[in-house]
């Protein structure tokens, strides 16, 4: 089913094209209080009333910390040979900036277990679980330097097991969504803060790349950005749409390639730029990760952002309420390829939240997700036909997990998780993937 729209000679059918699944530490691991892990900003955020839709937290999640061997067996059984996961900074470094041996042992066992199963790990160092005791979080420039220390320590101690490393996942979320929109930890509502956080995150990424290159030159180093297709609601909203597109999408690529970001955007805050920062942020990447889920309509608004977004009536939506728009992925990839000099691209996340349940015969019929994958794979193929260098695709996510501010109310997994029993049940989409991967 998921390969129905691909050409018989599609590059996606080539065994050299990487297919994987993705997860992140806080969303699946649980075990937040073991082995000297420090609390993260998400542990504290979850405890603030009203922050998480179902009042839940990551204390147990999928209990992957204790079940990783079985989960990797399941991943291998489905036929995936690539796995994108993240490391938890609060497990790996202690409050004094020294490596935590217990955390290192856990990730060494996890990464070794990947290699034993011929699964290539693609490791993200920061997927939002910042140690809660980092003073000022991403508003503090020092956090960028602490991130580089962490990157260096991890590359030194686990580098032999990590052929591909990303510094950050979706810095838009860790800045705009966290410090301006306030939906993610730490939940602030301040435009200027968001732009400051964005600056420090990109600085952290550049410093982290430099530190890892100094430590270990043969890992392939990248950064994962999330993009959203944005459409002006009316002709009069074109300027607002351009502002939204500048913030959501182009700003990150502008900084990575030392181009001037949109002046309308930069006028919204005082960025704490110091001499040399621009060059550090543009430290060359070996690859770029692209996460894509949806498209939104944009209209001008008299608020601190200058615009609002909404979904379009009549367009099919996933359970989380996001419009399904595969054509937006192709258009963004083609635009970026035309306008920027970028390294090879991996689609590092793409997937759908559906209202899944296990039926009486033990199956999970997730047809919407199956079609979502079919249409987005075709969109990737189409971008490649237009000349975009795309080397791999990772489905989000291996299994249902803690969906941040939505708690456990949204299920993105290929594998269903019963949170009472921790029973895993592959959904029909997982079986599609299994058939497709076996056919290549
Ligand atoms: O679950 C998240 C993931 O952590 C980051 N990218 C988007 C996914 C779905 O919202």
Secondary structure topology:
Elements: E1 18-22, H1 25-28, H2 41-46, H3 64-77, E2 82-86, H4 89-92, H5 101-116, E3 120-126, H6 141-158, E4 164-169, H7 171-180, H8 191-215, E5 220-232, H9 238-256, H10 263-266, H11 277-281, E6 287-300, E7 307-310, H12 326-339, E8 345-349, H13 367-385, E9 390-396, E10 415-418, E11 423-426, H14 428-439
Bound molecules: 5-hydroxymethyl-3,4-dihydroxypiperidine.
CATH topology: TIM Barrel
Low-confidence stretches: none
Under CATH, the homologous superfamily reads: Glycosidases
- Approximately how much beta-strand content do the residues carry? 15-25%
Q: Can you walk through the features of this model?
A:
Helices cover 39% and strands 17% of the residues. The protein has 14 helices and eleven strands. The protein has 440 residues and is of the alpha/beta class. The chain has a single domain, classed as Glycosidases (TIM Barrel), CATH 3.20.20.80. Helix 13 links the parallel strand 8 (345-349) and strand 9 (390-396). Strands 1-2-3-4-5-6-8-9 form an eight-stranded parallel barrel, surrounded by six helices. Residues 24, 27, 170, 291, 349, 396, 403, 412 line the site of 5-hydroxymethyl-3,4-dihydroxypiperidine.
């Amino acid at each position: 089913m998921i390969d129905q729209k691909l050409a018989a000679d599609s590059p996606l059918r080539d065994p050299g094209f990487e297919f994987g699944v993705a997860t992140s530490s806080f969303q699946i691991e649980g075990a937040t209080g073991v082995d000297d892990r420090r609390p993260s900003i998400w542990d504290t955020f979850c405890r603030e009333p009203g922050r998480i839709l179902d009042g839940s937290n990551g204390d147990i999640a999928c209990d992957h910390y204790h079940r990783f061997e079985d989960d990797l067996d399941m991943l291998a059984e489905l036929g995936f040979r690539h796995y994108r996961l993240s490391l938890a900074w609060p497990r790996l470094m202690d409050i004094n900036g020294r490596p935590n041996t217990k955390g290192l042992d856990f990730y060494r066992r996890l990464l070794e277990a990947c290699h034993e199963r011929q699964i290539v790990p693609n490791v993200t160092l920061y997927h939002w679980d910042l140690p809660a005791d980092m003073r000022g979080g991403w508003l503090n420039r020092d956090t960028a330097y602490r991130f580089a220390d962490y990157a260096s320590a991890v590359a030194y101690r686990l580098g032999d097991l990590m052929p591909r490393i990303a510094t950050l996942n979706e810095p838009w979320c860790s800045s705009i969504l966290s410090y301006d929109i306030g939906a993610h930890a730490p939940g602030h509502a301040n435009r200027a803060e968001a732009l400051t956080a964005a600056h420090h995150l990109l600085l952290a990424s550049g410093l982290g790349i430099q530190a890892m290159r100094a430590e270990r030159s043969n890992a392939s180093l990248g950064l994962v950005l999330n993009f959203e297709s944005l459409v002006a609601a009316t002709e009069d909203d074109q300027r607002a749409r351009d502002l939204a597109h500048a913030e959501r999408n182009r700003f990150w690529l502008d900084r990575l390639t030392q181009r001037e970001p949109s002046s309308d955007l930069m006028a919204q805050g005082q960025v704490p730029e110091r001499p040399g920062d621009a060059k550090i942020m543009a430290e060359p990447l070996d690859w770029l990760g692209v996460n894509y889920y949806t498209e939104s309509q944009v209209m001008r608004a008299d608020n601190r952002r200058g615009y609002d977004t909404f979904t379009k009536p009549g367009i099919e939506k996933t359970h989380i309420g996001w419009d399904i728009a595969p054509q937006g992925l192709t258009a963004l990839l083609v635009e970026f390829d035309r306008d920027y000099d970028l390294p090879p691209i991996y689609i590092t996340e793409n997937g759908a939240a559906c209202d899944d349940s296990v039926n009486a015969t033990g199956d999970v019929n997730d047809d919407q997700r199956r079609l979502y994958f079919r249409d987005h794979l075709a969109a990737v193929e189409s971008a490649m036909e237009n000349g975009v260098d795309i080397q791999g695709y990772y489905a989000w996510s291996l299994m249902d997990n803690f969906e941040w501010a939505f708690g456990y109310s949204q299920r993105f997994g290929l594998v269903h998780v019963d949170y009472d029993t921790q029973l895993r049940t592959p959904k029909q989409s997982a079986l599609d993937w299994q058939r497709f991967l076996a056919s290549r």
